[in-house]
């Protein structure tokens, strides 16, 4: 009880080590059956993160011999039950309480004791409105308790109707599309509850953005789970595709379709316009994005997704976690002068590329999505330390000098900085296709693949290390960022000073250390 009081006083954002979860069926018998199945499977999944106790009304009746559960209209017996539950928190990290499909005294006690309430509903239900018993139960939840929605889908059914269910439940925070027969969905929900969700942030990079596919595949091959994904510019597009398919195997055909359409001379020529506002009208890009992403809502993606854009109207950063996927992805990758700004249907604001204000939106993932373990995939790998040697140019820098520095292979740092990668240098990291050929290109491709796999293996060890931390340690006992391979960062900086070539794809952790070297 002291732990609950401390969490309440500390605020809703605090994450207690021990969690009591209440599962509430949204409607009648069908949702009650889905809730019972989810409770049993979730207990098994949560056991991987700590001792777990599961209680429904039948199990609770077996604990007491004096029919305490049946007499909980009385304050004495209700206090007896809540006191017993509080004692169990000494032995279990997670307590799963399964409520009934009604506002019974047992269900009321379950909701009042919960740190987190999961409202379980079936996506096939034609009526998303909450029933009277759900409203009464949620009214009894304690202060600071989080309410989330679990929408159960039938086998082979894509996520749908999440926006409709959330629109009638303004108090719901996160949502979780789930298939009961899919083990990966159950494990993802368990990681969110346990505070061990893994998020991936994909940066921009233009044509280099296709390399995100190779990095995501390397993470999959190494067994690193991805629960949340987001990005900016080209990274927003690749993140949306991955969030929709939750697999690089199913994502690859869409990426090939996207590359073929965007590189088509017909598309480029037909989308040209009088360059008063932009070089291209944007109609062709809109059509292609709608083809590969569909008219899907952000809420109807298998993985939690976000993207960021620069808001020209407010002059700040906009974060998008709801609405039509393709429209906000289009906004996040809109380069000024090349494509016209996108008008936000919800606010009427004008949006352009998010990379202008936040090229690596790690803070968004941690603050808005509640993810602490973050992997950043940076395909640009800009080495801004090269500007340390910049010499004064007497107030100006002529274009002729820049041209000379670019065409002169023996020029100073300026020539090296402005030289771009060739097609065969940039494309193999994406995992397929690409220009160039011969043994040299294949050798470079193999080198980059090995680097990506090695980086993904290091990310997996970091994730496993975080999972191994005892959930009962106090904040003062938890590892600090300095404990995680500070020598690796120092080695990277030393290599940069030595002037070695940079890889085209880099995976960084939340601690800032570069892992793909």
From TrEMBL:
GO biological process: lipid catabolic process
PROSITE patterns cross-referenced by the UniProt entry: PNPLA
Primary localization class, coarse: membrane
Span(s) of short sequence motif DGA/G: 353-355
Region (Disordered): 424-517
Matching Gene3D superfamilies: Cytosolic phospholipase A2 catalytic domain (3.40.1090.10)
Residues annotated as the enzyme's active site: 233, 353
Motif, GXSXG: chain positions: 231-235
One GO term describing the cellular component: membrane
Biased composition range(s): Gly residues: 430-440
Compartments where located: Membrane
EC number from the UniProt entry: 3.1.1.-
One Pfam family named in its UniProt record: NTE_Ploop
Family that this chain belongs to: Belongs to the patatin family.
Designated name of the protein: Patatin
Native species: Micromonas pusilla (Picoplanktonic green alga)
